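W.,

You were right to be curious about this one. When I first looked at the sequence I had no strong expectations either way, so I just let the prediction run and decided to look at it fresh. Below is the sequence, 132 residues in total, followed by the output.
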Amino acid sequence: MSDKNTQQIQQRRVFTRIPFDADYRLQDPSAERYWEGRVVDLSLRGTLVERPQNLQPEIGQEFVVELLLGADALKVVMVVRVAHFDEKNIGFHCMHIDLESITHLRKILEFNLGKPEMVEREITEMLNIVNG
């Protein structure tokens, strides 16, 4: 990705991304194929993951991604759409997230950012986008 494209993406980005070291499981909509790998970063509106070698994504393609949060079987589950990809990573835009998952995600962001008010502001922004 060129520096110009990276700058444009960062200018459009409203939600803070945090580096996050965790495993993920990616499932295609028909639930027939799975891929696993490592999470690179996440935000309230999506995640960036390491791209599995045997996955040929398409922009707009939908998946279910589970972010595995450790030994106590906690996970964040999102319905996502491919926003961008390269040889190394895939960026997903979150289309749907359930209440339990958004609660876990919120706690992760608050802990990593150390600023609950920033997370609250981003949730408000997310609701404004969803509600038009």
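Here's what jumped out at me. Residues 4-12 have pLDDT under 50 and may be disordered. And, maybe more interesting for your project: The longest strand covers residues 75-85.

Coffee later to discuss?

I.
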